[in-house]
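> example.struct
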């Protein structure tokens, strides 16, 4: 079971108290976008084996959305951070690189 700490209220919550919201840091396309851009936004998602950045909502707590970095194979959680952050914090990326040498985060926003 995953245990994620909400960066807003500080509560360490099991995944049953949270709601998964899919991949983090996606560029959203709206009015004026091409059909291809909108199709890519709707259907093209990363599904990596390894480190992944996801959106979560503290549903049975403060109700706020946040981002989490975790390994999809080992379920290791590297950390959580504000959903208003446009890219993962550098200290979190360093923590991941220390455990996964060669890891590079690519900007998908």
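> example.seq
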């Amino acid at each position: 079971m995953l245990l994620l700490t909400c960066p807003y209220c500080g509560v360490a919550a099991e995944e049953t108290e949270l709601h998964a919201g899919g991949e983090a840091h996606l560029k959203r396309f709206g009015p004026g976008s091409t059909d291809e851009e909108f199709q890519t936004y709707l259907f093209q998602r990363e599904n990596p084996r390894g480190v992944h950045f996801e959106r979560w909502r503290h549903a049975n707590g403060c109700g706020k959305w946040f981002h989490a970095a975790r390994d999809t194979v080992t379920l290791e959680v590297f950390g959580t951070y504000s959903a208003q952050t446009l890219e993962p914090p550098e200290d979190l990326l360093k923590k991941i690189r220390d455990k996964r040498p060669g890891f590079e985060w690519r900007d998908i926003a």
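> remarks
The longest helix spans residues 90-99.
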